[in-house]
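step 3/5: co-fold with coenzyme A
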Amino acid sequence: MMKIESLPRVTASHLVKSVDLNHHGTLYAGRMAEWVVEVGFMTARAALECSPQNIVCVRLHGMDFRESVDGGETLVLEGRTAYVGRSSLTVYVQASKLHDRKKERVPTDGFVTFVHIKDGKATPHELEVEAPETEEAQQIWMHIANERSKRQGK
Ligand SMILES: CC(C)(COP(=O)(O)OP(=O)(O)OC[C@H]1O[C@@H](n2cnc3c(N)ncnc32)[C@H](O)[C@@H]1OP(=O)(O)O)[C@@H](O)C(=O)NCCC(=O)NCCS
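step 4/5: write tokens
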């Protein structure tokens, strides 16, 4: 069985260009969401070691925009596996500004959930992980576990 902490983290850097800005002249939320989904997908695929054909996104959740990002900034997004289900896998993504020396606040973070599919149907991915060991990994695991139990209770 794998340790969740040892699954690959995937990092993607983006230069925030004019085409990425909203009417306030700062990074457009939709573009940020696109980048979060993208790095989430790459992280899920790296963890599951499967073909891109076998992964679909089912949920973009808990995404917070805490600080605006100006044009010209370099944004670094890092995805890590947050939760592993039977056929689903949730990735936690943090976006930070490369040149922000203080790095006190993460401008955006959020979760993306993917499902392993075959012939269009959810299929077990067969990745099994041990219970997380670090406090940070435990917190994000529990966050998703609680969300799942609320959804199942509906
Ligand atoms: C992926 C899909 C086939 C899953 O079908 P489904 O009938 O919901 O599957 P199930 O109910 O068997 O759920 C399978 C797993 O996905 C999880 N899941 C399904 N929908 C979910 C959602 N919206 N949020 C979080 N988890 C979800 C379930 O909790 C379950 O997890 P587990 O196996 O780890 O316990 C279907 O939801 C689908 O085709 N969605 C569209 C995907 C897509 O087009 N994405 C691109 C978006 S533009």
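step 5/5: annotate
The chain has a mean pLDDT of 95.
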